[in-house]
Amino acid sequence: MIISNWETSYERTEALLTGHLGYKFIGEAGVRRRYVPENAAGELAGKYVDILWDSNQRYGQGGIGTVHHIAFDTPTDETQQAVREILLSRHYVPTQVLDRQYFHSIYFREPGGVL
């Protein structure tokens, strides 16, 4: 699985991924830039994040065929809280940790507008 974001530029989202969420840039082809977790080893399936960028691209509209949000996994509740604190310190606006019965989650919008 590859998570792909269409955005008008990649720089601010890349800064979030590489500077705060522990990802590293591994390559680009045309308008696609690819990232993986810094500690990724072995099989990388399901660990890629791609930013597809085009300065003429319009933001998507909600509706059939769109993605509501992108989810990232953390190994523990403590790790999730640490990520939330990093986001707060970088002036993002994450929600409180929400108990979804089967998992805990936080939500925030990254610089390109993706939840």
Looking at this protein, list some descriptive labels.
alpha+beta; two-stranded antiparallel ribbon; single chain
Structure, briefly:
With 115 residues, the protein is of the alpha+beta class.
- Based on CA atoms alone, the radius of gyration comes out at 14 Å
The overall pLDDT average reads 82
Structural class: alpha+beta
Strand fraction: 25-35%
What is the count of β-strands? 6
The N- to C-terminal Cα distance equals 18 Å
Shape: globular
Describe the sheet with the most strands: 4 strands, mixed
Please work out how many helical segments DSSP would assign.
Answer: 2
- Biggest sheet strand order reads 1-4-3-2
The portion of residues assigned to helices is: 10-25%
Q: How does this model look, in words?
A:
The relative contact order is 0.22. The mean pLDDT is 82. Strand 2 (23-29) and strand 3 form a beta hairpin. The protein has helices spanning 11-19, 77-89; strands spanning 2-7, 23-29, 32-37, 48-53, 98-99, 104-105. The two termini are 18 Å apart. The protein is of the alpha+beta class and 115 residues long. The protein has two helices and six strands; from the N terminus they run βαβββαββ.
Please describe the topology of this protein.
Layout: E1 2-7, H1 11-19, E2 23-29, E3 32-37, E4 48-53, H2 77-89, E5 98-99, E6 104-105
Parallel strand pairs: 1-4
Antiparallel strand pairs: 2-3, 3-4, 5-6
